[in-house]
Amino acid sequence: MKIAVVGTGYVGLVTGTCFAETGNTVSCIDIDEKKVNSLKNGKITIYEPGLEVIFERNLSQGRLSFTTDLKEGIEGAKIIFLALPTPPGEDGSADLQYVLKVAEDLGPLLKDYAVIVDKSTVPVGTAEKVRAKIAQNAKVDFDVVSNPEFLREGVAVDDFMKPDRVVIGTNSEKARKLMETLYAPLVRQGNPVIFMDEKSAELTKYAANSFLATKITFMNEIANMCELLGADVDAVRKGVGTDSRIGKRFLFAGIGYGGSCFPKDVQALAKSAEQVNYDFRILKSVMDVNEDQKTKLIPRIKEYFGGDLTGKTIAIWGLSFKPYTDDIREAPALYNIEQLLAAGAEVKAYDPEAMENVRNQIGEKITFCHDAYSAVNNADALLVATEWPVFRTPDFDKLSTLLKNKVIFDGRNLYTLEEMKELGFTYVSIGRETIN
Ligand code: NAD
């Protein structure tokens, strides 16, 4: 099948590449010329494990192409995905300008029946708006379908190729058949393709992300209680996670959630609620708690240095919002950097994949180091912000020698209290006893 994907970012590039991998001919369209040129020349634009190899294969076999020209890109496509940004607008609601602009542009370009698929995360009612925009100038029949994406950055290829489920919102039988055919190779093991009305599909994505953000936040609040009561959040996690109604995943306490999805999606759902005069109280608390949680260790760092960070150098391990991605959108590390710099400290950082993105965003305000140990060399303290595996079993003897003070502030609970005690570190983590 010939398909088109409009928007070639994290979701669009994975969508396009994976559908090419299942034998479709895919044209990816983006307005970012630099991105398109790079992709055309075989240079991948994001770090996503496992993506590069299938990207190269499909590009060289002619199933995957890139263009900035919408007309050329959608030529002959039976299905056109919109994988466009939906960032928070000024009031926190999802900004639909990118999606609606492309919908408007698409109308006059459609030559035959096509299914236009909202893959972006969009509020309830967006499919209707997209349909209206296209209809303004369309001369042919078309359907608009909601097909929210659930991939996780870092494991996006696996998530896409073997999804837990595929959600498709449509009332059109014709669209349903095409979507079923397209997704069939990805759900051969029996994972469900769940068909529903488009509004429910749109809401499903926000419900899933908001629920997960709530689960993390709940555990972060339990961690805060653990600190006050002298309990250990890791023990509590194991105790509650073994209850099959709760489940083991998404229970790790830390310095909050970030990324390009949870913060904006929770905010957008809260805004949607407001627009229909519903007071979604849990979501407000989730946002409040997470806001504080992100920089929860800063007061502890200040306290350690007697309230004054002027001239102190803090090493940060991890800049991306989670491991296995170079995505730094809403990364807790960045909020910590901002507060450390504001307090007069210097920051030396290392991240396996995200340093270029941070440099592009904040310039040379901090020192970027080529490995984890150069970051701690001569630093006054270490702050762990992202749980990249490379930070899990460091050479603690080397750390002791390189750091000016044997002190670790661990926002991701990577080390055991026993080993920290034994090695003589001062160790501050989340929801656990402080080791002095
Ligand atoms: P992104 O910012 O990485 O990519 C969006 C792309 O769209 C960019 O390359 C941009 O240049 C392009 N674009 C903007 N306007 C355009 C236009 N008029 N024509 C063509 N291209 C245009 O965003 P993303 O992370 O891929 O997210 C896309 C959507 O998917 C969002 O709604 C997001 O909430 C949702 N989503 C993201 C993830 C994720 O993990 N990143 C997961 C599930 C859902």
UniProtKB/TrEMBL annotation:
It holds the Pfam family UDPG_MGDP_dh. Its EC number is 1.1.1.22. Keywords: NAD, Oxidoreductase. Residues 315-417 form the UDP-glucose/GDP-mannose dehydrogenase C-terminal domain. It is an enzyme of class 1 (oxidoreductase). SMART domains: UDPG_MGDP_dh_C (SM00984). InterPro entries: 6-PGluconate_DH-like_C_sf, NAD(P)-bd_dom_sf, UDP-Glc/GDP-Man, UDP-Glc/GDP-Man_DH_C, UDP-Glc/GDP-Man_DH_C_sf, UDP-Glc/GDP-Man_DH_dimer, UDP-Glc/GDP-Man_DH_N, UDPglc_DH_bac. Pathway: Nucleotide-sugar biosynthesis; UDP-alpha-D-glucuronate biosynthesis; UDP-alpha-D-glucuronate from UDP-alpha-D-glucose: step 1/1. Coiled coil: none annotated. It catalyses: UDP-alpha-D-glucose + 2 NAD(+) + H2O = UDP-alpha-D-glucuronate + 2 NADH + 3 H(+). Belongs to the UDP-glucose/GDP-mannose dehydrogenase family. NCBIfam families: NDP-sugDHase. PANTHER family: UDP-GLUCOSE 6-DEHYDROGENASE TUAD. This is UDP-glucose 6-dehydrogenase. The lineage of its organism: Bacteria, Pseudomonadati, Bacteroidota, Cytophagia, Cytophagales.
